[in-house]
Structure formats: structure tokens, C-alpha cells
Amino acid sequence: MPSWTIAAVQMDCKLADKQANLERIKEHLCDAARRKAGLVVFPECALTGYCFESKEEAFPFAESLPGPSTQALASLCRQLDLWVVYGLLERDGERLFNSCALVGPEGFKAGYRKVHLPFLGVDRFTTPGDTPFAVHDLGGLRLGINICYDGSLPEPARVLALLGADLVVLPTNWPEGAWCSTQHVPAVRAMENHIYYAAVNRVGKERGFAFIGQSRIVDCNGKNLAYAERSGEAVIEATIDPAVAREKQVVIIPGQYEVNRIAGRRPEMYGPIVRHKE
User: Fold this and answer.
1) Model pTM above 0.90
2) Span 186-198, average pLDDT
3) Domain 4-248 listed as CATH 3.90.180.10
4) Hey, where are the domains in the chain?
5) Is 44 in the active site?
6) Residue 258: CB atoms within 10 Å
């Protein structure tokens, strides 16, 4: 099973300037192709910006999936023979979603709508995601997508792991105050599911919010493979082996100290987790 080189683009984004952001995304894709990356991941709302003050302000910058940006990037992905995940605002009728698009050499593959919404930025006005978690085969790499606050709960990554994900990507807009998330979420989600995990944050300032970077790609034991500082834009990359993520039996000392956090589950004890809210 071949390994994959993953690139994470920690970039600033311009609020309500889709064309400028799209051009930056294209530039980074071309650079990633020179680095031999097979998958390139951008932050949450990389296409649109995040700190809108109302649904009415944000809605004109949303698009359908597939839509204009996926069409524009599909031809470049085909030319460069790579995949891209990037954040944007999605419209579906009158509903507004905080979404990610997955685009590859054959065009638009899938969208993901953020399931868990904090009371922050445009998420104050978006609709919670209503489509099931899904894993997408990129041709040897099984990919799952979450967005930002989804990573703060264990269930989304666990569901993706149970669906067979080798790698979960988490495009984020972590601002000041989210330091704990940048430091611990990627490692914990990776370790507890024995998967690779990539958290891709943005930098810069937007309407009084400073975004803190610290993007990272971690291995199945939660160890950093690549890490970006908080000071500015950066591109980090790492090579991952899907076969490692699929071997869930972790052997520390053969016959004496072995761990399998998937086989060791006790779903019959977890009823309160899926109990409906009152």
C-alpha cells in the first residue's frame, strides 16, 4: 500500500473576498504539487472568511456544492494530479452551512457540513450539519473530514475511524482562547482512534479576532509529524502510511503489553452518549 504526502496550508484569509482567497488556494496547490503532495488541506472558511456579523451579510458569499469554486479547482487538481480539502460557506435553498469541499483529479468528490457549532463568528448563523459522517477513498487513502469545533468532541473522529478512516483532517479557525485545542486535540483524537490526524488552522486577524496557527499533522500514536508555529503563514507536510492506521493492534511488548482501542470498545455500555437531548 503506497504512502501519501499530506500538505497543510496555514494561511490568512480575506473576509468576503472569495476571488483573492481562491487565487491564494491555487498558488498553494501549485506549490504543493512541486512538493509531491497528494492531498492539500486548507483552513475552515478559507474561501470566504469567518467573522461575518449576520446571515444576511454572509449569504451572498456562499455557494452550492458543487459550485463555482469546486469547478475552478477541479481543472487544477486534474492538471496537478492531487486532492484538496478547503473550507467555505455553502448555501442550500435558504439554509447556510459552514462546509468543506473535497475536490480531486476527477472533480468534486464530496462536501461536509460542520455538525457541531460554537457561538462564534459565522457559526452563530449557520445550520448544523445534517448529513452523515462519511469516509472517502482517494485511491488508497481513506479520508474523513471534520471542521473545527467537531474536533472538541470525541464522537465525530470515532465514527470516522469506525467507518475506516486512515486520516481525519480538521480545517479550523482557532482564535485566541483555543490554545488547549491546538495543543491537545490532534494528538488525542489520533491516539484514541489509532489514525493520522491533521489540524489545519489559519492565522491573521479578522474583526478583532486573532487566529493562532499551530497547525499540526500527527501520527497514529499522537506524535507530531509536522508542526507550524503561531507567528504566520506556513506550509507543513508529512508522509503517512495508511497501512499503519489500519493495524489497530498496538504492540508495545508482545504478549505482555498490547492495546487495541477499537476492538476494546464496549458499545453496550455507552447508551447515555446517544440518548436524545431533553
Assistant:
1) yes
2) 98
3) no
4) 4-248
5) yes
6) 11
